[in-house]
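Troubleshooting entry. Yesterday's outputs looked truncated, so today I'm pasting the complete records for two proteins to confirm everything comes through intact. If either block looks cut off, that's the bug. Protein one:
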Amino acid sequence: MGYKVSLVLRIIGISRSTYYANLKRQPKPRIFAGGRPKSHYTFTSDNKVVSNEQVKEWLCELITAEGFAYGYLKLTHCLRRKFHLIINKKKVYRLCKELDILRPQRKIKRKHPRRLARNRVITASNQLWEADLKYGYIAGEDRFFFIMPIIDVFDRCIVAYHIGLSCEAKDAVITFKNALFKRQLYTAEQKPIFRSDNGPQFISNLFEGRAWNLASSTKGFPLKHPI
């Protein structure tokens, strides 16, 4: 047997009206309807009703004729132009999916594939360098400037940098050469690993060709390890 509600409320100093009002305000679980129900018809431009089954027949006719290689976007345009349907691409996609006539999604091949860096244990300076390109706004002149630092990952020092109103592949090559000279590594046998993002300066033929020439006497000089 528990205590009476009136006794407990009197002890803790809460009125009965507050207690019962809070009981009534207890949140009820929300019930989600799951979106709009699917429509079973489509309107034409002259306000006629066309069933989904008829639209499916037209879709099958299109893909057996000139629309064999069409995706759902082009099929949507064909339905609008040829049959004057007021229909959006989402519904056409759903109907094509029900008919199993969707074209396989093409795979986009990147000209310069994304290269991910490997985690490395750095124990001294000049083992791993990183470069990145940043820009800032010049107040009063309405233009931007670019800065490209080369940082030693171990000691966090800026070995060399380029700053100017532009930053092209030739600027990246000059900055990289200056970094090697400053650390007296231009003719060294063991050179640091250089990592950068896949910016146009670093994936250009000029930068990659010059950088490999600088490391022609060194084995394993991996340039393509982005940050």
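Protein two, checking that the full record survives here as well:
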Amino acid sequence: MVGVPRSKGCSLCVKRRIKCDQVRPACGNCIKYGAECPGYDKNRKFVSGKHTIRGRGNQEQQHKQGLVMPPDTQTSTSPVSPDSTTDTSQLEARNDSFSLDASGSFVALAYHQQQQQPQQPPAHIRKLAVPVALRDDPVPLVYGLMEQLFTVQKRDEAVYNAPWFTSILSHIGRVSLLDGAMTSLLLQLVGKAKGDSMKVYRSRELYSWVLASLQKALNHPVVWKSAETLAATIICCIFELFAGTNNALTWMVHATGINRLVQQRGPASFSANSFDISLLRGVRPIIISKAIFAGHDCFLDRPKWRRISEQLTLNWGDNPASVTHPKKDIVQWAMLPHQDPFYVLHAKMPRVIRIGYSVRREMKRGIEPNAEQVDELRSKAAQLRTSLLAWFTRAKQMDAFADPVESPSSDPTSPFATVLDFRDQWEGSIVLAYWADLLILQECLNQCAEPGASKPFEKANRQLANDILRAMVQVGAGFMGPYRVGYPLRVAIDFVDEHTQHWTLTMVDKYSEHYAAMSSKVYPSNPLIGETDAKDEESIADAAAEVMPSLSLQ
């Protein structure tokens, strides 16, 4: 018919003469380039001239030459009827199209908006359809799973320093990606805690959808910057710590993605918004631990990031409107002002470890280490050790930390007659991390001793290692226990005798039943104390290639 455009793509794709995927309410090209999709309504275009009728013989000749499709195989150009019904499971996922509201915050298009223009999307889009459990309001589902979790686990140890159990909850129901990530994590935790294999299976199934949706969000020119995308990325890393879908090192691949995403967003994005601040504060220990185990410097030690890290807890704790206000959720209020100074010092550890590992590797190979490198190691280790000792002294004077209490051990297989109990498990986790830092720094100073001279901290290191393992029983209890003791435990195990190492690995295997990152089989070697197995390096590379989607930030 004269005046009816033949192209079925959106007006912008037709104007630009590019192929349109015809996804509604906005096509993929418009989403990709951040343009407002004009839609698929075609205005009639009237042209002057007479309609030419082709002869029947001419059409039959074209059909013989393959220029005209048979009638039964031609594509219908009739529009979709508003009254037609479409299976909602095949509708486009609500996070496939994104928009910005008036305030500039990231929101996903509401599900009911897509029902106004039902159309079956392409196969690659249908694979990312929102799971049934998340199509309606996901808030009751998430809160119901949390209620189940807190019936078998203590709530106090979960909410401390963990925005995925506190401030993230106020963002549930806004973005399907974050809803799915939080639901998959809670299903994993509840399933493991209750021995419910069906919940664990459902968590893995939902997690695969989350990874695919996360890749789409990271490739979006606007959505990758949103706090919800960062929160989902962090939750995926936490999920891998507990689940280890590929192996126990997969969390390091996700931590690499978090590093890139945080740095791409820049320090300014974590200086004002309380939700962004709580996210960086919660993931800060993971960022530093990943840098330590991977053997590279931590970006949080750079000046512009150090200024942000120095006041994360201050900005977060002074917000009375925040759902994560410490007076509501944290037992030891006095400890808060001393957390930022500790993590500022803790972020310097990866650089010292990297230098110390280089010196140790040359010494083990019988090579004379570079004198300038040894001097640098001695200077940095001594300076950082002095700063840590001063920090701990100030904190104890203000009652931020109390001396642990000795009590008889209830484990007949333990090599220790007594264990150390802190007044709070999270308080104990910071003290254990502080002891682990001292262990490494003092070992660096031992390595810098002159040949033939006695090592000044050899006895002190053995005592620190034993104290870490004695405190592991209490601090490592609960479902977040392995998260608290993972780093100090890996450091301490290299300073004890063989019998104690065997007992420690037995404890590690018990932790790995619900916390995969603690597996003794693929647990990464400490960059300073021991050589990393080549198989461990290969497994990290395999995990990077197979498990985590590429984090290309366009």
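Both blocks look complete. Sanity check on protein two: Strands lie at 98-100, 106-108, 405-408, 418-421.
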